[in-house]
Amino acid sequence: MSSPTIRSRREVRPTDQAPEGARSPDAKPVLSFTAKRRGKPPVHLADVDLAARKTILKDAGFPAFRADQLSRHYFEHFTGDPALMSDVPSAMHEAISHTFFPPLVSEVITRQADDGLTLKHLWQLFDGARVESVLMRYSERTTLCVSSQAGCGMACPFCATGQMGLTRNLSTAEIIDQVRAAQAACRDGALAGGPTRLSNVVFMGMGEPLANYKTVIQALHRLIDPAPEGFGMSARNVTVSTVGLVPAIHKLAAEAMPVTLAVSLHAPDDDLRDDLIPINSRWKVGELLDAARSYFVATGRRVSIEYALIRDMNDQQWRAQLLADELNRRGHGWAHVNPIPLNPTPGSIWTASTRRAQDTFVRTLRDNGIRTTIRDTRGSDIDGACGQLATAVKEGRVVTNGPTPLGMPDMKKETR
Q1: Contacts of residue 104, Cβ cutoff 8 Å, sequence gap at least 6
Q2: CATH number (domain holding residue 288)
Q3: Which of 54, 82, 100 is the last residue of a domain?
Q4: Dmax of the chain from CA atoms?
């Protein structure tokens, strides 16, 4: 099926305002790959590997074997406070806290949805920057969505985080401590249904993971390397999302870590994707899909194609057909499409596709042999889209009592 002639581009900004700093109303968004200069987070145990932990301890005058103890407490027992580590002498607690467990991530607020099956956390970092993570329990798994940057420099106009701009990259430990907190929450029964085990981690929170490449690779090692190096999770249960940084996709394929790659595509044609995903001005749809296919060949891991369905924008049947054609042209069985109804952000000019359009889109893909699964929408009643809770708190629409150190037993929870 050929696509109809596109006579004019539709306005894709979420408001009637040009991007910040623009000199003309039709100016393009400004991409940001470099984080602003800010103070670096203090070094944390999760920032370095076991060998480096031993060296740091010896330099501080402590036995190297303590590195194994501390690491197992953190990665196996999900403890980030030396005072709670029974086999660590009390005389060491203060020094160990300073050396390996500086306060990096503090809880601002936790909100629950979906009858307690979803917890959305807003965290404050050591320098006041804020990020979000979402913990979701399903019948067959429990998944944590983590942030890799504070804000995002990719400027996607339908994304709340993209409209915030990039504040800075997170450190490895700032990413991993989101995971440790989720592991502890699962163990302690914070989700409805009682204690469970964190099984999946997805880098689909705030930020573009591949724009913080080195740090995210280190975080992946902490996730999949066995204790005392890391959590020992299955690489198959870890997903890294990208809007399309093609060179970084090729680098990731060479890392020999078979994590799942998720491509935030959202449009199969350059005409629309140039507007929806500004990075498409650098790497076009064809280049991106070629890189994704190469990732599949290198790792054997099927690629997820993420597609937010936006009413009358990208949900036409001919675009579903074009997407199927583009995927099938590169082979069969290498990609799985995950359409998801748009989670509108404040001030957005769009809404989610109608159920009829959604069903037609999915049916067209399946009729062409494309594996397709509608993604579950979680937390839509608690500022579910990434960046919305941080914005709501900043604007005073959600009241908190201030940050509380991570790991404190009395988590603040607000439901509505």
Answers
A1: 41, 42, 44, 125, 126, 171, 173, 174, 177
A2: 3.20.20.70
A3: 100
A4: 74
132 is catalytic: yes
Between residues 348 and 27, the one the model is more confident about: 348
**Whether residue 168 sits in one domain with residue 61:** no
Q: Which of 11, 20, 132, 414 does the annotation list as catalytic? A: 132
> pLDDT for 82-130, tens place per residue?
999 999 999 999 999 999 999 999 999 999 989 999 999 999 999 999 9
Question: How many residues in the chain?
Answer: 416
Domain limits for position 301: 126-394
Rounded-to-integer distance, Cα 93 and Cα 82, Å:
5
Q: Are 174 and 218 in a shared domain?
A: yes
Which of 145, 152, 186, 386 is the catalytic position? Answer: 386
* CA distances for 37 relative to 19, 168, 239, angstroms: 22, 8, 29
Active site includes 94? no
Same domain (yes/no): 327, 236: yes
- Shortest CA distance to 379 belongs to which of 411, 409, 335, 416? 416
Same domain, 266 and 332: yes
- Residues 10-42 have pLDDT tens digits of 445 443 343 443 334 455 566 777 666 678 999
Prediction pTM value: 0.88
How many distinct structural domains can be found in the chain?
2
Kindly report, residue by residue over 227-284, the tens digit of the pLDDT.
999 999 999 999 999 999 999 999 999 999 999 999 999 999 999 999 999 999 999 9
